[in-house]
Design goal:
This protein is mainly alpha-helical and 208 residues long. It has seven helices and no strands.
């Protein structure tokens, strides 16, 4: 009995191996840039939070919260009549452009942080909570875009319902390997050789 690809039966064009390789490479780079941003954001927010532990906690909260929100929203949206590859391209470009602007957005927010210290400085708890919320608001948008990339790209890669688990698992694992490379390279290569601003520019260029 001859096996017929479900994608062919449904009229979709099967995703050929070279196309899959390119997609996997793109998602590897996406994972790397995501962790580069996470490390860089931690460095930037240390100047605001005044403590590395607080900046790490803030970045992790915004990052993980954004990934969860983006995964949920992306999964809902992509089931509609959207082109998955075009949506993925828009998200990656959006991530790069927004992250390129984050240092400027933080600078613009400095008057707000000054107001927080001047008006809420008597309460350490209130001061910490408000500046935490402001920082999360700055970082939640690109983190949400990052979270949406997996379900959207999975829709493009996985054309056969029988192989959804394998395809999505492969995408996720490649993205995770990219994240490992990004975390290592940002701390031990890029920021040491280029500095924070240039590291952000390199990651943003890779996204775009």
């Amino acid at each position: 009995m001859t096996h017929v690809d479900p994608a062919v039966q449904s009229g979709e064009t099967p995703l050929k191996l070279p196309s899959r390789i390119w997609i996997f490479l793109f998602f590897f780079v996406s994972g790397a840039t995501g962790l580069i941003y996470e490390v860089v954001w931690t460095r930037l927010l240390t100047l605001i939070m005044g403590n590395t532990h607080y900046s790490i906690a803030t970045v992790l909260t915004a990052f993980m919260g954004g990934l969860a929100l983006g995964s949920f929203v992306g999964g809902k949206i992509i089931d509609r009549a959207f082109n998955p590859l075009a949506a993925y391209a828009i998200l990656e470009a959006g991530i790069g452009i927004y992250c390129l602007l984050i240092p400027f957005l933080i600078d613009l927010a400095f008057p707000l942080f000054q107001w927080i210290y001047l008006n809420l400085g008597d309460s350490y708890t209130q001061t910490s909570l408000v500046r935490f919320l402001v920082c999360c608001a700055l970082l939640i948008i690109p983190a949400t875009f990052m979270g949406a990339t997996l379900p959207i790209l999975s829709k493009f890669v996985s054309r056969d319902k029988n192989y959804i688990g394998k395809d999505v698992g492969t995408l996720y694992s490649i993205n995770t390997f990219g994240a490992v490379v990004g975390a290592w390279s940002s701390a031990f290569v890029f920021m040491r050789l280029l500095g924070v601003q240039a590291t952000i520019a390199v990651a943003a260029a890779a996204n775009i």
